[in-house]
User: What shape does this take?
Amino acid sequence: MAKKKGISIPERVPVASQMYDIEIVEGLADAPTNCWGCCNEASRVIKLTAEFPDVATMLVSYLHECLHAISSEYRVKMDDDDVDRVAQGMTQAVIALVEAE
Assistant: This one.
């Protein structure tokens, strides 16, 4: 489980009627794709790096990959730019919620 500033990434996340496993992977950010995460809709697995530099990057990456799963399961057409913009906006909302406590 990845954790930053009291925010933990769950081991599984429900999307529609499916359950996606979440794997925390060492070295994913160093891979040739240079990404923080990836979503395999066929196997219903989300992989996230263990090396997030800060909580905002962790949240936006988690939400980004969850949005790929949501897009697939609900058959909502979103390209990667759409997913990224929505994930960025959701991250801002979540951070505001956490900071309001």
